[in-house]
Every structure is written in C-alpha cells, then in structure tokens.
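WARN  no MSA supplied for this record, continuing single-sequence
INFO  ligand: iron/sulfur cluster
INFO  echoing inputs
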Amino acid sequence: MNVGGIPLGGDNPIRLQSMTSTSTMDTTGSVGQTLRIVEAGGEYVRLTTQGVREAENLRNINAELRGKGCNVPLVADVHFNAAVADVAATVAEKVRINPGNYVDPGRKFKHIEYTDEEYADEIKKIEARFVPFLNICKENNTAIRIGVNHGSLSDRIMSRYGDTPEGMVESCMEFLRICVKENFMDVVISIKASNTVVMVRTVRLLVDVMEKENMSFPIHLGVTEEGDGEDGRIKSAAGIGALLCDGLGDTIRVSLSEEPEEEIPVGKKLRDYVLQRNGHLYIPAEESNKYDYLRPTRRETVAAGNIGGNNLPVVISSGMPGCPKIDTEKCDLMPDYIYCGGQMPETTIEGISYIVDVTSWNGAPNTYPAFSTYGESANMLPFMGMCKAPLKFLFATYVTMTEEVRACLKLHPEVVVISQSNHQNRLGEHRALIHDMMNNNLKNPVIVFQHYGDTDMEDLQIKSAADMGALCIDGFVDGIYLHAPKDMTSTAYGILQATRLRTTRTEYISCPGCGRTLYNLQETLKKIREATGHLKGLKIAVMGCIVNGPGEMADADYGYVGAAAGKVSLYRRKECVEKNIPAEEAVERLIELIESDMK
Ligand code: SF4
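INFO  complex generated
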C-alpha cells in the first residue's frame, strides 16, 4: 500500500514508527520532535489530532518539515470525531481511526441488546459515515489505519461479542468489509492491547479471519501502555516479537513512556533480531493436533517436584564459575534453581535449589542431577533409573530426541526436559521439540534454555523476550533458563510477568503520552513507581488524559488519569472514585486509596 513516499506491506521492509508527545498546535515543538524521530530511524510519524484545529495545523507542521527537507509521511491520530478525520485526510499522508469510537459513541460500559435488524442498521450507519471519508482519502491519496484498541471497543461490540478477541476482530472486519466493497485498499490494520496474550491471540485470529474472507491487508503491530525501562522493553519484545516470529507484521510501534525517539532503536533492534532467522535451515517437524495456534492453552504436563502441572513456571539461573554472581543483598527476586554445571555448590542460598551434572552430583539435600542427551553425559542416560533423586533434569535438543530418549522420558515422569537450541531459528527448534513430545504423549515439563553472548542489558532484554514471547503465549513453558554474561534472573521474571504467566512485581500500564497528555508523564510514573513498587501483583495504570485513558487502561486495578490541566482523577478498576484532585496531591491520594482498600 501507498503511505506518502514510503510504501508499506508486501515485500517492503518492516517499517518503524513513533508518535509525538507534543501538542499538535505547537508547530515548532512537533516539528522538532518529528525530526528527532526521523533521525533515530522512524519512517512514519503520528500526531494526535483531537480537533479540526489540530488537523488544520498539520498543514503548517507538514510545510515546515518539507521546507527542512524532511518528507516523512505524517499520520493523523483521530478518535471520537469523524469530521476531524475528513479534514485530516486532506493534509496527512495517513489517518488512523478507531472503530470503537468513529461512529459509535464513546464507551459508557452499558449493555445494549440489539436484534439482528437493529445491529445491521448500526453497520449501515457506519457505512454511511465511513464511505464519504474513504472518498476524501481516495481524492487525496491518503492511506488509513483501522486501529482497534482492546480498551476502547464500543458498547455495541462489547454487548454482542463481549471483551473477546472475536469482538476486537469483528470491530475491525466491519470496517474492512466496507473498504473492500468501496475498492479502497490503502489500509493498514492494528489490534492493540496492553495484555500481550490478548494482543497476540487477537492478531492471529484477525489474520485467520481475513484470509477466510480473501483479504491480506498489512498489519501494524504494537502493545499499548507498555510502560518504560526494562518492563516496557520486555513487554514490547514479547508481544510484538511473538508475532514477528510468526511472520506477521509490516510496521511496528514500540510505545514506551519515554521520549518518542527512544522507541525507534528498541523497535529496530527487535525487528533486526527477528529477521536474522530469515532463510534458516528447514526444521523437519510435525505439528501436534493437540495444539491450537489461534486459542492456545497451557500444554498438559505432570508435575515433577514444583515444575509443570499446575505450578507456576520456574526460573533457573546460571551459577557456574565465571557466571555473574547473584547479589542476594540487592536482588529482590531470586531464581528458583541455580545450575552449577559439573561442580557442586560450595555454599548455597537459602530457598534456592541447585542443579548439578549427574557425573558430579553427590545426593546432597536440595540438589538435583542433570543428565544430557548429547556429549559425554549422554552415556549416563541408561542409568537414569538407578539414580534415586526425586527430581531430575535432562538437557535435550530436538535432533537428539531419539526413540531411546522418548522411552526414557515415558518411564521417568520425574524428569524435567531443558530444551536447548543452537539453530538459526531457535524458536522453531524449541517448538519442534515440544510438538514432538506432544505427538508422543510425553507429559514431562519443559524448561526453555536460551543463551546469549551480548553484554548490553537492553539487547539481552529484547532478544530474550522476543525468543520467549511466543513460547510463553503458546503455553509451552514450565520454566525459563536464560544464560548470558549478565545476570538474567530479573529479565526471566519480567518475561513471565509480561506474558501473564507469573506475577512477581507491580505492573504499570502507562500510556506513552501524546498531544493530549495533561501532566509530566515520565516524572509522575517515576514517583508512582517509587511509592508503589512494593505492591506486588497490583496493576496500576498511569494515563495521560481522560479522553482515552479510562477506556484504554483495560484491566488495571487502579488508574491515575489526567483529568484537566493540573487535575487528576483516580480510578478503582473502571470506577472513578476521586475526581479532579490537584495534581500535587494525586500520588499521595492514590497511595491512600490503595492502602485503605488493603486494610
Ligand atoms: S491515554 Fe490520552 S494522553 Fe495517553 S497516549 Fe492515549 S490519548 Fe494520549
């Protein structure tokens, strides 16, 4: 499809984009930020366009950018006002509309009963308003994005489909069918959620539904309200990475609560890392019919010790000589197990179990032996039955899953497989091993091992989350073992939290900020983090504005939402419990609210 001078979809590169956080009425500020995004490698820049004034001012921003030799396509982000989209379509290269509020009114969380005729009438109303907009886009060569957000589905869709991937997909398909009928094909689609599991499942379902209706529109990938720092990077890489690894996605936006230009290098690293596996050697494997790609559930396993079955996935860290030491003073999260290689641990940390190569294991309490399907230790496999440990580990690769290994696993339910891969497409090989186990009815738990040589923590977070995201979301992971020159314990827990498998920290659902933001988002998020970091398991939303914030903070337990200049409203789930309080008092009042609920 055509978007200004930068085509999208098909064989074109996966495009990187970001969104300004300036007011779109601030021409100088918006131009400056756009230039910084472009300099960082951004290929499209989106600007919030809340009214006709902002849509008109895109003309000035556009002119100033072109005057400076910058031809980046501008994308107008429109919510709640179809008339604004009409104006924006005459100025911007692309207009994003949200099907949840384009014609349907903003969400009031009301249940509305429709007969089939009434529902069809509503679709006709959308068509009557949408077609003139498409005509303006056709006249001006303007592309569109149909951007569905989990948090802003209309009451109409929610009433008929509920808060489901099917509802999000239908919300998008209603608009796509009109585009096809009108022969308007410059369309990209997005389906975003702050919950990576919902986002990945919904995009997969959308692609499936589109294919059934002979559509192949390009896809924009993003996780909303990702937060900042390590959590934001891990959440983006796990969600967006899972879909890129599936071969889905034509443009990506990593939305961090940081400066917009900081999103681009993160997106670039993620994209380039996933693309490294292009052209990899074929992995001959058979997909298990027990696995449903569109609606994956956790693989059925029998617990071995505290691993698999209904247990939460565990974290293993490396404790071989030369590995980074786990700082028990500083770390708030300890691994469940430490793998020591061929040496029994000299000292142990209370509460942690140790894994030692079987050739060195001496049966000391709280230590467990590790066997292997390859190398010298493979000779020990026939003696597994003689080893009396209640829990054993087996390092295995897909290619070493022989009949002998399968028979051994069948005989020994106390064995946990640690899946390893050196393949160019590690994800594919881990998947192949797990499908092989499913096909052979092996219920031993699987821990996925990944190793990295990088020393930069951001690289490690992005790569490991991209490698693990799809496996976690597919329900294949009973534990994670990340090995690198840096201690990866915190990252492993971050991946489990980002994929909703194990919660060990407070989760922050914070919007990236845009021209509607009513306070200093980054500073406020920092203050809230400092004050609430100990409240593990709670989801706290920090949203820049009341227009989209309450809808888009999805399943947060508490919300801190900009209500007006200098004013904040506090939410308990979807309910506003304190309105328009002065911003200076708002963080304290949020803590008081949470503490009083906890009494
Ligand atoms: S919640 Fe409001 S301020 Fe934050 S990104 Fe969305 S529209 Fe912008």
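The pocket of iron/sulfur cluster is lined by residues 511-514, 516-517, 543-545, 547-549, 552 (CB under 6 Å).
INFO  checksum written, moving to next record
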